[in-house]
Amino acid sequence: MSNDSRRTQRRNVHEPVMVVDTMSEQIIGRLGNISESGMLLVANAPLVEDALYQLRFEIADPAGRAVAIDVGAHLIWLGSANTPGQSWAGLRFLTIEERQLAVLRQWIARPEARG
């Protein structure tokens, strides 16, 4: 993964992609945008700044099959959202399996992701 996460291609996620904390198996929010090195989470659960999380979300591979993506992530920052009970959370990926990273890169690069 790139050390300069702001220079990696990002995908704004318009469809609902739920994010699960694998330690509690609870949905903690949805993807706002994502790159191969991190994500913006629209959180609906309380999170702790500077904490480490094990997260999972599902995206479609080129054949349309759901692929679970498991990441270890560091919560870099938290901000208030306009919707009560929600917050914005910036997370940097620390771990991701190479095969899952390849699927994620393809998903981010798809033409429909640029809209």
Describe the protein.
With 115 residues, this protein is mainly β. The chain has a single domain (5-114), classed as predicted glycosyltransferase like domains (Thrombin, subunit H). 10% of the residues lie in helices and 49% in strands. It contains 1 helix and 7 strands, in the order E-E-E-E-E-E-E-H. Strands 2-3-4-7-6-5 form a 6-stranded antiparallel beta barrel. The radius of gyration is 13 Å and the shape is globular.
Number of β-strand runs: 7
| Class inferred from helices and paired strands | mainly beta
- CATH classification, class level: Mainly Beta
CATH architect. name: Beta Barrel
| C-alpha geometry | globular
**What percentage of amino acids are in beta strands?**
over 45%
The description of the largest β-sheet is:
6 strands, antiparallel, barrel
What's the end-to-end separation, in Å?
24 Å
Number of DSSP helices?
Answer: 1
Count of discrete structural domains: 1
Q: What is the alpha-carbon Rg in Å?
A: 13 Å
Order of helices and strands: EEEEEEEH
Mean pLDDT: 91
